[in-house]
Design goal:
Blueprint: H1 2-9, H2 12-21, H3 23-28, H4 33-39, H5 42-51, H6 58-73, E1 86-90, H7 98-102, E2 112-116, H8 122-125, H9 127-138, E3 167-171, H10 176-187, E4 191-196, E5 208-211, H11 217-230, E6 236-239, E7 245-246, H12 254-282, E8 286-291, H13 304-324, E9 329-336, E10 348-349, H14 355-367, H15 373-385, E11 390-393, H16 395-406, H17 408-416
Parallel strand pairs: 1-2, 3-4, 3-6, 4-5, 6-8, 7-10, 8-9, 9-11
Helix pairs in contact: 4-6, 10-15, 11-12, 12-13, 16-17
Bound molecules: nicotinamide-adenine-dinucleotide (NAD).
Length: 422
């Protein structure tokens, strides 16, 4: 019934994908041949080789054939149920596409649908994750919904948007890009964990705000423990908190370097390390967004430490993306150009006669950039949805990225041009 509904309502592409994945169901309908394949050991060996799992027992295989045949031919009733039901949809399942798994929602009010990193043999691959999902489903609080009392917890129930009820943690959320990104996810229904060293608030419903400095490893660990226990493992972590030091390299002190590396690089490292480990243990995938900058690939004489930390964040993101891909954890490096935020107002200006005046003038200049920060939030959300490795924002960022790949000498020449007032 459920497959029938999917075939009636699913998109053509989704139906074709599922049809290609379901070839074996036709094979199971043949008389005697499938039984022979199991008894001769061919089916068990083929599954073990193809799926990299221990060889299934012949008896299980034969029972499975009976089950498939009964399911295909003997369904009675309309297939609906009020029994609280959870579907675990492995993201790398070769036989059941997530679209088919999600279509069960039509038959179950408040279906609990969860994508889980893994393949078709998930119960063998990650029994810990399956057991935890079952435990959570059984003891779900508030009680699982019925037709009479639909749930208000968006994690339980058919997703209204992809982001409804997801947990998104943003560092540096009190101002600028961080605040805009938190608001963008909140508008799409996500629960926000807003983190900043300054007091802040979590936009939207069901979120929490924390005053934490990203350079404080113990505080970040405690934050992760509290968030994961009380709200849930974040589905997305945006490592955005950052500062700037502006001036020539030879005017930077050791402390200037230490401070900017601590926030811009080590803050991102802590966020990735602490939360990626929890995402991986949870086994339901996730996404890290690391805020780098167009400065990551644009050499300058006025932001040497800043450019260096941002370049490191870009490379860290690339390395991590490769490492975390098998766990369905995506990583995006965000590379904006100039944006009207508070970064200049808190930047340190070194090697100038009047740092306070330079700070004010740079702040005024930056804030004149007519670029709505909600566009940055939209870009971040699209980058996560499409799992993009690098997300460029603003025209100068796109141009500099292209030139850095095609003609880096041009950027080197531009870097030598004196830039007044920055
Ligand atoms: N504004 C731009 O032109 C631009 C361009 C490219 C990249 N970026 C990057 O975007 C990110 C956000 O900056 P923004 O422009 O929105 O600046 P912003 O100053 O408006 O916001 C930065 C936020 O991070 C917080 N923060 C700083 N250090 C912190 C710490 N140690 N722990 C916790 N929170 C901390 C600040 O309190 C502030 O709320 C930064 O990483 C920045 O380098 C900014």
């Amino acid at each position: 019934t459920h497959v029938g509904a999917f075939l009636r309502t699913g998109s053509l592409a989704a139906r074709l994908r599922q049809a290609a994945a379901s070839w074996y169901i036709g094979f199971f309908q043949l008389p005697r041949v499938p039984e022979l394949a199991w008894r001769a050991g061919v089916a068990g060996r083929a599954i073990a080789r193809r799926e990299r799992v221990p060889r299934p027992a012949t008896r299980d295989g034969l029972n499975g054939l009976d089950l498939y045949r009964a399911n295909i031919s003997g369904v009675r009733g309309d297939g609906r149920t009020d029994v609280p039901t959870q579907v675990l949809a492995p993201t790398r399942d070769r036989y059941v596409t997530p679209a088919l798994a999600a279509s069960a929602a039509e038959f179950v009010p408040g279906l609990r649908f969860r994508e889980v990193a893994g393949g078709h043999w998930l119960p063998r691959e990650r029994p810990d994750v399956v057991a935890r999902c079952v435990r959570e489903h059984i003891s779900a609080s508030p009680p699982l919904p019925t037709r009479e009392s639909p749930t208000s917890d968006a994690r339980v129930g058919h997703p209204r948007t992809r982001w409804t009820g997801k947990v998104v943690l943003v560092t540096g959320a009190a101002s600028g890009i961080g605040r805009a990104v938190a608001e963008g996810f909140a508008q799409r229904g996500a629960r926000i964990v807003a983190v900043d060293r300054n007091p802040t608030e979590a936009p939207g419903e069901g979120g929490r705000a924390f005053q934490v400095d990203v350079t404080d490893v113990a505080a970040m660990e405690a934050l992760a423990d509290e968030v994961c226990a009380e709200i849930g493992v974040p589905d997305v972590v945006v490592n955005n908190a950052g500062i700037a030091v502006s001036g020539p390299f030879l005017a930077h002190s050791v402390q200037d370097w230490q401070d900017i590396v601590d926030v811009n690089l080590m803050g991102v490292v802590h966020g990735c390390r602490i939360f990626a480990a929890r995402m991986r243990d949870r086994g339901e995938g996730g996404h890290l967004v690391n805020v780098a900058s167009a400065a990551a690939f644009t050499p300058t004489t006025f932001l040497p430490a800043y450019c260096t930390t941002k370049s490191a964040v870009l490379m860290l993101s690339e390395c991590l993306r490769a490492e975390l891909a098998p766990d369905d954890i995506g990583v995006t490096a965000l590379c904006p150009g100039f944006l009207p935020t508070g970064i200049a107002a808190s930047a340190r200006f070194v090697g100038v006669d009047d740092p306070a005046e330079r700070q004010r003038s740079t702040d005024r200049l930056l804030k004149r950039r007519p670029y709505p920060l909600r566009k940055v939030a939209a870009a971040v959300i699209t980058a996560v949805e499409r799992n993009r490795p690098v997300q460029l924002v603003t025209v100068e960022s796109r141009a500099a990225y292209a030139v850095s790949k095609l003609a880096p000498g041009v950027l080197r020449r531009i870097a030598r041009t004196p830039v007044p007032n920055l």
